[in-house]
Amino acid sequence: MPGKVALPATAGEAVNPARYVPIDAVRELLADRNANLATMRESDAVQRVDTALRTGHITPAMKDWAKALCMQDSASFDTFISKSPAPYAHLHGRLIIGQPPGHDAKYATASEDEATICAQLGLKPDALRP
User: What phi, psi does 99 have (nearest 5°)?
Assistant: First the structure.
C-alpha cells in the first residue's frame, strides 16, 4: 500500500532506539577526538624535534620546518633524522660570549697590518678591536 511503512516481521528485527545515538552527539565526540589527536600529534612532534635539535641533527633555524614535517609525515622526518649525521652536534649548548676559544695575549695588541691600516685612516692602533 502506498504511504505506509512496512513493519518488521518479527520482534527480533525491530529497531532498538537504545542502540542509536543522535548525530549531534556523534559529531561532538568526533570533534573532541580529533582535537585530542591533534594535540597529541603536536606534542609528539615538538618532543621529537627538540630531541633532534639537542642531538645536533637540526639547527634552531630548522625547528619550525622540522616540526611541520614531523606533524605532516612522521616517516619522512624519521628518514631525514636517520640519514642525517648530526653535523650540528658540536654546537649544542655552546654560547660564545666575549673572545673566541684560544684567544690569548698575542691578539691583545694590534698586528702590523692593523697598525698600518689604522695609521692610514688616522685611527688609534686599537680602534679595530671590539
Answer: -80, 145
Distance CA 90, CA 93 (A): 8
On the 0-12 / 13-18 / 19+ scale of CB atoms within 10 A, 32 is: exposed
Q: Considering only CA atoms, which of 125, 120, 124, 121 is closest in space to residue 109?
A: 125
Inter-CA distances, 39 with 52, 73, 76, 85, 104, Å:
20, 16, 20, 30, 51
Please indicate, yes or no, whether the overall pTM of this predicted structure exceeds 0.85.
no
- The 10s digit of each residue's pLDDT in 49-92 is 999 988 888 888 889 999 999 989 989 999 999 888 877 776 66
**How many beta carbons lie within 10 A of that of residue 56, not counting itself?**
16
- In the chain, what are the domain boundaries? 17-88
Question: Nine-digit cell at 81?
Answer: 633524522
Taking phi over 0 as left and psi of -120 to 50 as alpha, with beta for the rest, 99 belongs to beta
Q: Which pLDDT band holds residue 103 (cuts at 50, 70, 90)?
A: low
